[in-house]
């Protein structure tokens, strides 16, 4: 079984994983956040252990919690107090990661014992997109783990750009917690959606994902600095797997989406307010790229005057 294709363009950028800590959900962190959630009325973060317990407890009760999701966010903001609180940042990172992951969320079809799950030409298993996952339909992307990871990491990158406008130790704290949420979700997806029971195989894929994440940051950073053409090239290599038949309008649409999203994020005064942030509808960017360039209607002139020596 193949979960994702390998991209030479990003694997060559960052190979060091010596300081990587992907796999252990540290008990002290989770337990402390559980105490904060208990007294502030917040939901517990989802992990394989507590999700099983919660599912058993919820079977016997059909009673739903009162209030709207916004109340939980407000309670979280009260619990945050200072953005430097490690356990508070952990809870905030879980909320903003879910916003990043929903754009390409998917599930696997229920196949019988004699049925085979459809795969791409590269052998990646094809799933069924969730209702809110617009990117698959918008850009004709395959519903695979690889697409989910690349689209999710793109949205994470946009938040990281905003998070960088903090003191260095807070940047590291927020970015690490957001990154950890991604790898928690990625490993859960391997187990739940793709029935990958081997821990060593999962560890291999997670390390490859980490290399791709580091390479993606470098590629998109370069695109933001050097211009839209370079940024479009990074999008083409990562999201579209360097497919030569990709519609160039799709690249322009995502470039416009990135620029406008960063503009919106620039208006957020404090990083903890990211828990309220919602990404714009990707389909809305079609109107922007359909506008004709003003320079196309201007006459083409060539200066034939020779300078006097």
Account of the 3D structure:
The protein has 309 residues and is an all-alpha fold. It has one domain. Helix content is 55%, strand content 1%. This is Ubiquinol-cytochrome c chaperone domain-containing protein.
Spatial separation of the terminal alpha carbons: 70 Å
User: Considering DSSP H and I runs of 4 or more, what fraction of the residues is helical?
Assistant: 55-70%
Strand tally, please?
2
- What is the ordering of alpha helices and beta strands? HHHHHEEHHHHHHH
Protein name: Ubiquinol-cytochrome c chaperone domain-containing protein
Family: Belongs to the CBP3 family.
Organism: Blumeria hordei (Barley powdery mildew)
GO cellular component, one term: mitochondrion
Summarize the model shown.
The protein is an all-alpha fold.
Outline the secondary-structure elements.
Elements: H1 8-11, H2 27-40, H3 48-59, H4 69-80, H5 86-101, E1 106-107, E2 128-129, H6 134-139, H7 145-163, H8 168-192, H9 199-226, H10 228-238, H11 248-266, H12 286-289
Antiparallel strand pairs: 1-2
Helix pairs in contact: 2-5, 5-8, 7-8, 7-9, 7-11, 9-10, 10-11
Descriptive tags:
single chain; 309 residues; 12 helices; mainly alpha; two-stranded antiparallel sheet
């Amino acid at each position: 079984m193949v979960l994702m294709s390998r991209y030479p363009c990003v694997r060559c950028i960052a190979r060091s994983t010596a300081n990587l800590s992907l796999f252990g959900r540290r008990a002290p962190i989770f337990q402390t956040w559980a105490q904060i959630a208990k007294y502030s009325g917040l939901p517990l973060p989802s992990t394989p252990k507590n999700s099983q317990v919660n599912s058993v407890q919820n079977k016997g009760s059909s009673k739903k919690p009162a209030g709207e999701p916004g109340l939980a966010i407000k309670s979280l903001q009260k619990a945050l107090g200072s953005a430097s609180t490690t356990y508070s940042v952990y809870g905030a990172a879980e909320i903003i990661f879910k916003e990043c992951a929903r754009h390409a969320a998917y599930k696997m079809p229920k196949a019988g014992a004699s049925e085979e799950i459809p795969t791409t030409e590269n052998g990646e298993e094809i799933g069924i997109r969730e209702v809110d996952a617009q990117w698959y339909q918008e850009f004709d992307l395959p519903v695979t783990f690889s697409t989910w990871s690349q689209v999710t990491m793109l949205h994470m990158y946009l938040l990281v750009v905003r998070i960088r406008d903090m003191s260095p130790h807070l940047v590291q704290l927020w970015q690490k917690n957001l990154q950890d949420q991604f790898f928690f979700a990625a490993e859960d997806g391997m187990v739940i959606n793709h029935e990958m029971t081997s821990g060593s195989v999962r560890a291999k894929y997670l390390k490859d994902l980490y290399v791709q994440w580091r390479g993606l940051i470098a590629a998109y950073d370069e695109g933001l600095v050097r211009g839209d053409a370079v940024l479009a090239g990074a999008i083409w290599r990562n999201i579209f797997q360097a497919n030569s038949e990709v519609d160039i309008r799709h690249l322009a649409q995502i470039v416009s989406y990135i620029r406008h999203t960063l503009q919106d994020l620039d208006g957020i005064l404090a990083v903890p307010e990211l828990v309220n942030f919602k990404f714009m509808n990707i389909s809305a960017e079609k109107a922007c790229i359909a506008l004709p360039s003003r320079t196309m209607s201007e006459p083409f002139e060539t200066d034939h005057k020779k300078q006097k020596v």
